[in-house]
Amino acid sequence: MTCSEFMALLDDLLDDDVSATLRADLDEHLSGCEHCFITMNTTRKTIEFYANRELYPLPAPLRERLQSAILEKCRKC
């Protein structure tokens, strides 16, 4: 399996939506490819982080400055 093939299947792997045979192929690739192993772990941790996020209210002045900055940036595009 190539890194490109692995990356094309990464979403399915993380969603646990692969057959046992395909999972074995993916695991074999991971055992010998540090780049794909790091990419998979980083992606998994990112998903977990955002899935567990808490919303924090912003103070009104900060929210207004942030909104103004975003709108100004959008006008320039």
Automatic annotation (TrEMBL):
Any single Pfam family the record assigns to this protein: zf-HC2
Species this chain originates from: Acidisarcina polymorpha
Protein name: Putative zinc-finger domain-containing protein
Residue span(s) of domain Putative zinc-finger: 3-36
Superkingdom classification of source: Bacteria
